[in-house]
């Protein structure tokens, strides 16, 4: 995923007290495209990922210096986890990316889907932060866009 998103790998799992204060981070990466950003990536192989995991990762950013936290799970995030991520991004400078089972399946099917997934998440945050749109307004626009896209391709066939 790091290569697919044009990130630069910086280090593998950090666990030492000197590096993380006793916490754990699976991967650190950085971007030098458009602006510098440091990414903290945590992978979970569990059925459900709850808000505690997200809160811990945000806490780790004070040690790692990350701007972006990506949590990837082979399972799913709880509703509370999604709500926490949304609220945290509303009130802080951090950007949190949550990738779960269905996202991984889409990426496995076509590796370029990672760009579509990340772009969609970024557009949602932009709409909330810069256009002051609500989640409902964003969802409504996405649904309309999906309908238009499907209609266009159905007619083309």
From TrEMBL:
Tell me which domain of life the UniProt entry assigns to the organism this sequence originates from.
Bacteria
Pfam families attached here?
Mrr_cat
Residues forming the Restriction endonuclease type IV Mrr domain are 14-90
Q: Which GO terms describe its molecular function?
A: DNA binding; endonuclease activity
Instruction: Set out the biological process GO terms recorded for this chain's protein.
Output: DNA restriction-modification system
Q: Which InterPro entries match?
A: Restrct_endonuc-II-like (IPR011335), Restrct_endonuc_IV_Mrr (IPR007560)
According to UniProt, the name of this protein is Restriction endonuclease type IV Mrr domain-containing protein
**Originating species:** Crocosphaera subtropica (strain ATCC 51142 / BH68) (Cyanothece sp. (strain ATCC 51142))
């Amino acid at each position: 995923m790091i290569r697919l998103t044009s990130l630069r790998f910086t280090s593998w799992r950090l666990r030492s007290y000197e590096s993380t204060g006793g916490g754990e981070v699976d991967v650190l990466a950085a971007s030098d495209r458009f602006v510098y950003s440091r990414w903290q990536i945590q992978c979970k192989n569990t059925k459900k990922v709850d808000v505690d995991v997200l809160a811990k990762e945000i806490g780790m950013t004070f040690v790692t210096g990350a701007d972006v936290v990506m949590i990837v799970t082979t399972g799913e995030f709880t509703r509370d986890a999604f709500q926490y991520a949304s609220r945290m991004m509303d009130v802080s400078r951090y950007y949190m990316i949550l990738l779960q089972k269905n996202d991984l399946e889409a990426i496995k099917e076509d590796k370029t889907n990672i760009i579509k997934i990340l772009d969609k998440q970024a557009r949602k945050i932009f709409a909330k932060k810069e256009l002051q749109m609500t989640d409902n307004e964003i969802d409504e626009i996405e649904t309309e866009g999906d309908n238009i896209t499907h209609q266009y391709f159905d007619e083309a066939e």
